[in-house]
């Protein structure tokens, strides 16, 4: 019964190891694909942030600080960008994904008197930069979540491979060795019983033979029993 139990545990551990290994491979594949896109997005963000700051400087130069401040206050009356969160499933791991909504146009009348074109250009660049920043943040979040999931999965795989499965195999080997020893002892016991029975049977035959020989030697002859026959001529 114990042997069957440990065989079942070994089979379950090996199957779990195989499934976790496949899960780790799937997570690593998704991790590498996100890593490449994240690197490209971060490199792109540097150029976009630089261009947005240059556009802001141009707008301040043409419209002045007061004109830019007024345009910003007008745009803050409504939310320029909204994000949504959805969840993706990769091998049982929930990964949050941020999605940007539609960019609002804002107040087109801001800066019409002076530097309006530069203000609108700066606003468009910053809105696009903000949208790409949401994308980069989503990729960074997925990167962190996948990294933690991969570490946990690899620890479980290593625990099954290096600790659980070898321990069960060693236990099964010990149980098999004990069963073999019991089988050898049982075989030796049966052999000794057969040998003892054979010796007893031979001893009984020897005793019967001795008793038979002793009986024949002690048996009286016919003449001694009935006497001599007078009709027999000497």
Features:
single chain, 234 residues, mainly alpha, two-stranded antiparallel ribbon
Q: What features would you describe in this structure?
A:
This protein is mainly α. Helix content is 78%, strand content 7%. The protein contains three helices and two strands; from the N terminus they run αββαα. The chain has helices at 2-75, 116-218, 222-226; strands at 83-90, 93-100. Strands 1-2 form a two-stranded antiparallel ribbon. Strand 1 and strand 2 form a beta hairpin. It is rod-shaped, with a radius of gyration of 49 Å. The two termini are 89 Å apart. The mean pLDDT is 76.
Could you describe the largest sheet, including whether it forms a barrel? 2 strands, antiparallel
Q: Number of DSSP strands?
A: 2
Uncertain regions: pLDDT < 50 for 5+ in a row? none
Give the percentage of residues in beta strands.
5-15%
Strand arrangement, major sheet: 1-2
The percent of residues in helical segments reads over 70%
Distance between the termini: 89 Å
Separate helix tally: 3
Q: What is the approximate shape?
A: rod-shaped
What sequence of helices (H) and strands (E) makes up the elements? HEEHH
**Average pLDDT, all residues:** 76
Rg from alpha-carbon coordinates: 49 Å
Structural class: mainly alpha
